[in-house]
Amino acid sequence: MIRDREIDRLVKYCQALGIRVVFTSDLDGSSAEWAIDGSEITINKKRNKIKTDLILTLIHELGHHLWFVYKKERQPDMKFDEAITREYFSNDKKLTPKRLRKKILEIEREGLRYWDIVIRDVDIKIPSWKIEMQKEFDLWQYEVYYQTGKFPVRRIRREKLKQLVAKYKVKK
After folding, report:
1. Residue 32: which residues within 8 A CB-CB, separation 6 or more?
2. In-domain check, residue 146
3. pLDDT at 61 over 90
4. What is the 3-state secondary structure (H, E, C) of the chain?
5. Cα 78 from chain centroid?
6. Distance between the two ends of the chain, CA-based, in angstroms?
7. Looking at the 3D structure of the chain, how many domains does it have?
8. Structural domain includes residue 155
9. Does residue 103 lie in a domain region?
10. What's the pLDDT score for residue 164?
């Protein structure tokens, strides 16, 4: 019940920022997408089965949007657009060049800086250790992607999550 209300508040927060939220089961492999023009966030329900995960995913995407609003003044970043287009929409099987992967990593780092604003504004009650753990996990995935050109496989992601749970849960 608490998580349902948090999801509703997050959706209303998005709407207040002029973002349409779409829930789908059709995204190819990704848990969510934020439209580079700031108009829409699409959430993959298949990849966000647990409500806490859905909330953290929405917060992640809202972090991108707040970066877009406050740092970019709602002007699309063309290098980021090029990097995303190359990575996700190109039929080219070559790895995305490292300079473009670096741009994606930079945008991910920037988005993380806005999580706390969203969490405070929407009054999210997820334990802080889970939020900090998710931030580190998200950043780690993009750092691996930057270095290797590929996101870590499921087994490696699960191992990393176990390490992070052990690290953060103890700190409570």
Report:
1. 41, 42, 43, 44, 47, 48, 57, 58, 60, 61
2. no
3. yes
4. CHHHHHHHHHHHHHHHCCCEEEEECCCCCCCEEECCCCCEEEEECCCCCCHHHHHHHHHHHHHHHHHHHHCCCCCCCHHHHHHHHHHHHCCCCCCCCHHHHHHHHHHHHHHHCCHHHHHHHHCCCCCHHHHHHHHHHHHHHHHHHHHHCCCCCHHHHHHHHHHHHHHHHHHC
5. 19
6. 24
7. 1
8. no
9. yes
10. 96
Question: Per-residue pLDDT for 72 more than 80?
Answer: yes
**pLDDT-based confidence at residue 170 (cuts at 50, 70, 90):** low
* Residue 71, domain CATH: 3.30.2010
Per the structure, the complete domain to which residue 34 belongs is given by 2-124
Instruction: Confirm whether 152 is domain-assigned.
Output: no
Nearest to 56 by CA among 64, 67, 68, 48: 48
Predicted confidence at residue 47, as pLDDT, reads 80
Tens of pLDDT, residue by residue over 11-36, are: 999 999 999 999 988 767 778 888 88
Give the tens place of pLDDT for each residue, 85-116: 777 666 777 888 899 999 999 999 999 999 99
Half-sphere exposure of residue 2, counting CA atoms within 13 Å on the CB side? 6
Produce one character per residue of 66-94: b if its CB has 16 or more CB atoms within 10 Å, e if not.
bbbeeeeeeeebeebeebbebeeeeeeee
Q: What is the mean pLDDT of residues 46-54?
A: 88
